[in-house]
Amino acid sequence: MKKLNLSVLAVVALAGSLFQTSVFAAESTPEITNTIIEDKGVSLTVDGFNQTLVGKKEKRKSLRSQKSLQNTDLQIGDLTLTDGNVSFDANVGETAISLSGPLHASYKVQNDMNSIVGDLADQTGNFKVLLFEIFNDTKDDNLLVNHNLNAKPHLKLYLLDSDSNILIFETDVPEALSKLDASSFAQVEDNKKEMFWFKGLAKPESVTEIPTSETSIAEVSGNTDGIR
Fold it and tell me: Is the distance from CB of 52 to CB of 66 less than 8 angstroms?
């Protein structure tokens, strides 16, 4: 009888161990994997950025007239979303980038916009991430170059390279990220820092009011010449 009791206890202990293992595995299983994004963006110097995309519209130069403007390819693969953290590898032109970091609700939720941003860092050290935003909404938003995406869900990735060039990518939200809701992500005290992603790049005198927002930020959107 004692031997039987010991056998039962062993089975129960093993079952408990397997249950704990399965729960842990479920919690650590990535929610989204293998999302592929291929698109084009633009690269321009900080001076070119200030001359064409910042300040009062009537004082801006045409984006197409900017000599530093270059088209740049973006290829994202191995995108993984787990427990509120995102990571992915990509090629920006011919340069590799490996990004990772936590996601949180954007300050735009205060204006009833479904917007999620990431505090991402590049593990390769090739780029500084200025802004990563998943805009899952159909309201007007601040877009710099791809105005065809206005009032549509879109993904923003703004980078600064080692030569102080700003790279701007604005593309459709991939289907795998289209169901994300800002209400599922925490809000942070400094969530307005993505509002000022251009800090240190845009000239101070360009700070003004954006008509579509109740908050004061640099006027970096408007009727610029499209690139597509």
Answer: yes
Q: Which two tokens stand for residue 185?
A: 């992500």
Distance CA(170)–CA(40), nearest Å, equals 8
pLDDT tens profile 185-207: 998 887 778 889 998 898 765 44
Tracing tokens 């820092």 back to the chain, one arrives at 193
Query: Could you count the other beta carbons within 10 Å of the beta carbon of residue 77?
Result: 13
Q: Which residues pair with 156 in a beta bridge?
A: 133, 170
How many Å apart are CA 225 and CA 80, to the nearest integer?
A: 34
CB 125 within 8 A of CB 228: no
DSSP state of 17: H
d(C-alpha 173, C-alpha 193), whole Å: 22
pTM over cut 0.85: no
Could you tell me where the DSSP H helices lie in 39-80?
46-53
